[in-house]
Amino acid sequence: MKIDLTGKLAIVSGSTAGIGLGISKALAESGATVVVIGRETAKVDQALASIRQSVPDAQLRGLTADLGTAEGAELLFAAEPRADILVNNLGIFNDVDFFDAPDSEWTRFYEVNVISGVRLSRHYVPDMVKQGWGRVIFLSSESGVATPADMIN
């Protein structure tokens, strides 16, 4: 099945590697203009090159920003004030014992893994509703259902 997303703008958080990069490639293959976002310019550039290698005519934009912070989200909103498709894929993990992780680390996990997607959705969804079309996807891992002992956070 071929989905035609020509003319649609897709924003994918956590898109410089792994599942986010794969989603970005698939969206580009379907004709969407894809915004690839990462905390390091070199990784953003590498992801853009990887997508272009697979999809030579891909319509891509890159942005260096930490979407786990309000400041990073504001950078995205300034660069891309609207979106048709939002894929909330951002997530972090640290191999730390449940009892040893300080409150600051738990707060950071929550900020990145939960609040970042909420923040982006609050910004982009109102325009999607107004235009009568939009898609928001929140990704997680199977660890949310069957959590390995070393991934309790």
TrEMBL record:
One Pfam family it belongs to: adh_short
GO molecular function, a single term: oxidoreductase activity
Gene3D superfamilies associated with the record: NAD(P)-binding Rossmann-like Domain
Entry annotated with the keyword Ribosomal protein: no
Keywords: Oxidoreductase
Entry annotated with the keyword Oxidoreductase: yes
Record InterPro entries: NAD(P)-bd_dom_sf, SDR, SDR_fam
CDD domains: SDR_c
E.C. number(s) listed in UniProt: 1.1.1.392
Entry-linked PANTHER family: 3-OXOACYL-(ACYL-CARRIER-PROTEIN) REDUCTASE
Sequence similarity: Belongs to the short-chain dehydrogenases/reductases (SDR) family.
Protein name as catalogued: 3-alpha-hydroxycholanate dehydrogenase (NADP(+))
Species this chain originates from: Pseudomonas fluorescens
Originating gene: baiA
